[in-house]
Write a structure and sequence with these properties.
The chain has 157 residues and is of the alpha/beta class. The chain has a single domain, classed as Cytidine Deaminase, domain 2 (3-Layer(aba) Sandwich). The chain has 3 helices and 8 strands; from the N terminus they run E-H-E-E-H-E-H-E-E-E-E. Strands 7-6-5-4-2-3-1-8 form an 8-stranded mixed beta sheet.
């Protein structure tokens, strides 16, 4: 299970709306215990993909290292990642699975859609789902559906 506060959930979804029509991405910091990933902070990251930012994302290695160091200083771990799917369902793709490498982490995907046309058009986050990267290596890795619990406050696991 992935557990986070409403403010974090809303911030992830807002990030997707702000970066539309490109994918957003970020890192989830917190604690993992007994199958529960408790998110303490959702950290925005830049999408450095220049070739296909509309349907791919990549966090710069140096930015990820910086986020990981910050987490350690706060006594937190990387418990997951998030990104958006502009105009596509909040389901993992073959590319998402191929590029996922942090076993035991949550991978959150938010579908962002455009309502209307022209100047009155608005982007809105639709569905948000989480998946756990399971397996022992590249040959048997898989993304499994993971429930999201959104709470007023999230304490320790």
């Amino acid at each position: 299970m992935l557990r986070m506060e409403q403010a974090q959930f809303d911030a992830i979804r807002q990030h997707g709306e702000e970066t539309y029509p490109n994918e957003c991405c970020g890192v989830l910091l917190g604690h993992a215990d007994k199958g529960v990933h408790a998110v303490v902070e959702a950290v925005r990251a830049g999408n450095i993909r220049t070739d296909s930012a509309r349907n791919r994302y990549q966090i710069a290695p140096q930015e990820l290292i910086h986020i990981q160091r910050k987490a350690r200083q706060q006594g937190l771990d990387i418990v997951g990642f998030y990104h958006s799917h502009p105009d596509h369902p909040a389901q993992w793709s073959k590319t998402d699975l191929r590029e996922a490498h942090w076993f035991g982490c949550s991978y959150v995907i938010t579908s962002v859609v455009r309502d209307g046309a022209g100047e009155t058009a608005r982007c809105r986050a639709a569905e948000t789902n989480s998946f756990l990267l399971a397996g022992t290596g590249e040959e048997d890795k898989r993304l499994e559906s993971q429930p999201i619990e959104v709470a007023a406050t999230v304490g320790a696991c």
